[in-house]
Amino acid sequence: MDLDDVINFYQIHHINRPTELVNTFTDSFYFAKDLQGRFVYANQLLYDHFDLSDPTDAIGKTDADFFREDITEQIHKDDTSVIKGAAITNKLELIEDGSGDVLWLITSKIPLKNNRGEIVGIEGISHSARHIQANIRSYNVFYECINYMQ
Q1: How far apart are CA 134 and CA 102, in angstroms?
Q2: Using one digit for the tens of pLDDT, what is the confidence trace for 66-108?
Q3: Is the Cβ–Cβ distance between 135 and 90 less than 8 Å?
Q4: Cut 0.90: pTM above it
Q5: Residues 6 or more apart from 50 whose CB is under 8 A from it?
Q6: Which of 42, 95, 141, 150 has a Cα at 20 to 30 A from 116?
Q7: Between β-strands 88-96 and 39-42, what pairing exists: parallel, antiparallel or unpaired?
Q8: Residues 6+ apart with CB under 8 A from 65
Q9: Which residues pair with 33 in a beta bridge?
Q10: What CA–CA distance (Å, rounded) separates 48 from 60?
């Protein structure tokens, strides 16, 4: 696939693009990637976080364009599992974006399927642990550490 295929990902696979609702999230990053790990969609919060001037600036890029190598390797490992059909739900992650910003995120990912049920990518959502303190109650062991680091 070339960049045009990434840009036209949703048309090629006959699936609906995410609605504008995902751009109203103030505490959640929404993203979708193709099977090669290239971003085919990301919500406004993700663009804002990475200081991208245009939404298309992320399209076609991979996690390696935004994160350190060790973080990229873990994300790739998770994505590979999802491409094989697994779902990742509510995984507590520490993400450092290369510019010094550190975020605790709770991430869920599922396979992105076309209308024939074939896996054509992944989609996910990452919530800021800071904004959803109630959801980290099950991680009480880390509560004080998370608050201190944030």
Answers
A1: 20
A2: 888 888 999 999 999 999 999 999 998 888 765 677 788 899 9
A3: yes
A4: no
A5: 58, 66, 97
A6: 42
A7: unpaired
A8: none
A9: 39, 122
A10: 17
Contact by Cβ (8 Å): 120, 13: yes
In the numeric block, which tokens belong to residue 31? 């993203």
Structural contact between residues 128 and 107, judged by C-beta atoms closer than 8 angstroms: no
Amino acid at 127: H
Torsion angle of the four alpha carbons 53, 79, 143, 100, in this order, in degrees rounded to the nearest 10? -40
> What residues are paired with 123 via a beta bridge?
32, 110
> Which two three-digit tokens encode residue 69?
């190598």
Structure tokens at 66: 């935004």
Scanning the structure block, which residue is given the tokens 């507590």?
Answer: 92
Secondary structure of the chain as H, E, C letters: CCHHHHHCHHHHCCCCCCCHHHHHCCCEEEEEEECCCCEEEECHHHHHHCCCCCHHHCCCCCHHHCCCHHHHHHHHHHHHHHHCCCCEEEEEEEEECCCCCEEEEEEEEEEEECCCCCEEEEEEEEEECCCCHHHHHHHHHHHHHHHHHC
